[in-house]
């Protein structure tokens, strides 16, 4: 049985923790709003890009002269997994969920006899992956010093991926990140970047108006070849922003839970403390009374 | 009064403009081109340069754009997706200097003739922009 002093200390310590988690929750809420705005601001660009590419891509579907980024290398032996996670912990299952999805994919690929290479964006993902796939990780890109994710950050990752692809270091590239659904729901997602894949439906929806004759300058092939590499960076940028919003959302709900748990714990400890104090008083009284009776 | 059409200027980070305008001059890779109402469907990549927009009031607004493409939809609406788009008023000399020094590095790093040629072109375009801004 802990002594009164122990209980007092524990209550004080839980209270201090509660203050910290409460503060973290509020900070996350403020950051979430900003991250959400950034993610929404980036959406029109990514959507237009996708629509235009889908439109162009239809024309090149199945043709031999389709750009390599779209057609692939003709093999799927070497897979590159780009795992985007947060730089910090204390955000519930956020990092763990992305890492889990990536690990499962890596395991399945290795079982099928494929070669797996991994690029980690964000330190936490590397921490979660290195035990099992440490030797597959070829690069870790840290975003520790990045306060606001700018397009140039995504370009950096994009350039890395593209130069590897041009050197023939992998055949298929998949990006792992967490999609922001709502504050309480984030969905770990795997998205194939290379070879680029476009939704046929989207192309058709867009293609409804595409009956008109488009004029291209330079020609379609060149535009497509110019846009596909840019699209990689755009998709990575979008993923990073979704990730940032998801991270703050996950942290907010995790810290909300932690604050509530701490509150419950304080209540329980306070009851224990009062009960024990009462017991001590009773014991002391009995001692005094029995002492008086003995006289 | 000029007839108006829908124009959108979008960069990955934000939407800079979405408005009814009278005329837009876009720095296309194969030359500048102007877009008025009822332009035929057209798509072009853009080179680093100044994009000019004439609004309803007839005043020109200028943006520095780099990398991306312009798309005139069949309805005549123009969308410019630029990797980087900055209102000329906000542009600083530092920013341009940095872009130029980046381009210079690209030229030095270029491995084969083709990429070198490309990098040199980008560099000369940036210099043009710097000149244009200085003159303005």
Question: Could you describe the 3D structure shown?
Answer:
The complex is a heterodimer of chains A (295) and B (136). Chain A is built from seven helices and six strands, in the order ααβαβαβαββαβα. Chain A has a five-stranded mixed beta sheet, sandwiched between helices. The longest helix of chain A is centred in the last third of the chain and has 75 residues, at 220-294. Mean pLDDT of chain A is 86; it is low at 201-210. By secondary structure, chain A is α/β, with parallel strands linked by helices. In chain B, α1 runs antiparallel to α2 (113-135). Chain B has two domains: 5-89, ATP Synthase, domain 1, CATH 2.60.15; 92-135. Chain B is α+β, with helices and mostly antiparallel strands and 136 residues long. Chain B is built from two helices and eight strands; from the N terminus they run ββββββββαα. Chain B has helices at 93-109, 113-135, and strands spanning 5-10, 15-21, 23-28, 31-35, 42-45, 49-54, 60-72, 78-87. Classes of the chains: A alpha/beta (295), B alpha+beta (136). β6 of chain A pairs parallel with β5 (42-45) of chain B.
Strand and helix map with partners:
The complex is a heterodimer of chains A (about 300) and B (about 140).
Chain A: H1 4-60, H2 68-71, E1 78-84, H3 94-111, E2 115-121, H4 123-133, E3 137-141, H5 151-166, E4 172-180, E5 186-194, H6 200-207, E6 215-217, H7 220-294
Helix pairs in contact in A: 1-6, 1-7, 3-4, 5-7
Chain B: E1 5-10, E2 15-21, E3 23-28, E4 31-35, E5 42-45, E6 49-54, E7 60-72, E8 78-87, H1 93-109, H2 113-135
Parallel strand pairs in B: 1-8
Antiparallel strand pairs in B: 1-2, 3-4, 3-6, 5-7, 6-7, 7-8
Helix pairs in contact in B: 1-2
| Form type of chain B | globular
* Largest pleated sheet of chain A: 5 strands, mixed
Which H/E pattern describes the elements of chain B? Answer: EEEEEEEEHH
Query: Roughly how many Å apart are the termini of chain A?
Result: 33 Å
Tell me the Rg of chain A in angstroms: 28 Å
Largest interface by Cβ-Cβ < 8 Å: A-B, 30 and 27 residues
CATH class of the largest domain in chain B: Mainly Beta
Placed side by side, the strands forming the largest sheet of chain A appear as: 3-2-1-4-5
Helix-and-strand structural type of chain A: alpha/beta
The residue fraction in helices of chain A comes out at: 55-70%
Low-confidence stretches of chain B: none
How much helical structure, as a percent, in the residues of chain B?
Answer: 25-40%
Q: What's the rounded overall pLDDT mean of chain A?
A: 86
Query: Low-confidence segments of chain A, ≥5 residues, pLDDT <50?
Result: 201-210
Number of helices of chain A: 7
Strand content of chain B: 35-45%
Mean model confidence by pLDDT of chain B = 83
């Amino acid at each position: 049985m802990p002594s009164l002093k122990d209980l007092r200390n524990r209550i004080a310590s839980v209270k201090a923790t509660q203050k910290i988690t409460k503060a973290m929750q509020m900070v996350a809420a403020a950051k979430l709003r900003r991250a959400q705005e950034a993610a929404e601001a980036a959406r029109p660009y990514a959507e237009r890009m996708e629509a235009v590419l889908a439109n162009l891509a239809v024309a090149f579907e199945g043709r031999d002269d389709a750009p390599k980024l779209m057609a692939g290398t003709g093999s799927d032996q070497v897979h590159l997994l780009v795992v985007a996670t947060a730089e910090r912990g204390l955000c519930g299952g956020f990092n763990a969920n992305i890492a889990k999805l990536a690990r499962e994919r890596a395991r399945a690929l290795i079982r099928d006899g494929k070669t797996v290479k991994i690029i980690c964006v964000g330190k936490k993902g590397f921490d979660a992956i290195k035990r099992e796939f440490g030797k597959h990780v070829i690069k870790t890109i840290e975003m520790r010093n990045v306060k606001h994710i700018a397009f140039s950050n995504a370009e950096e990752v994009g350039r890395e991926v593209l130069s590897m692809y041009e050197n023939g270091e992998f055949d298929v590239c998949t990006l792992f990140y967490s999609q922001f659904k709502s504050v309480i729901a984030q969905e770990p997602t795997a998205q194939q970047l290379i070879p680029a894949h476009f939704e046929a439906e989207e192309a058709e929806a867009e293609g409804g108006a595409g009956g008109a004759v488009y004029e291209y300058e330079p020609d379609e092939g060149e535009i497509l070849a110019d846009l596909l590499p840019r699209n990689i960076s755009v998709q990575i940028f979008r993923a990073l922003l979704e990730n940032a919003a998801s991270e703050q959302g996950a942290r907010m709900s995790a810290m909300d839970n932690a604050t509530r748990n701490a509150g419950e714990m304080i209540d329980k400890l306070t009851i224990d403390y009062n009960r024990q104090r009462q017991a001590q008083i009773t014991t002391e009284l009995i001692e005094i009374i029995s002492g008086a009776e003995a006289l | 009064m000029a007839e108006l059409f829908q124009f959108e200027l979008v960069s990955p980070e934000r939407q800079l403009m979405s408005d009814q305008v009278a005329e837009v001059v876009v720095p296309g890779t194969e030359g500048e081109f102007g877009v008025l109402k009822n332009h035929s469907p057209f798509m072009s990549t853009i080179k680093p340069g100044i994009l000019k927009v004439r609004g309803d009031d007839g005043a020109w607004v200028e943006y520095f754009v780099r990398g991306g493409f312009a798309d005139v939809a069949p309805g005549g609406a123009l969308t410019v997706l630029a990797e980087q788009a900055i209102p000329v008023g906000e542009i600083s000399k530092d920013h341009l200097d940095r872009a130029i020094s980046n381009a210079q590095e690209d030229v030095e790093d270029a491995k084969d003739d083709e990429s070198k040629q490309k990098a040199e072109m980008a560099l000369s375009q940036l210099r043009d922009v710097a000149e244009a801004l200085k003159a303005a």
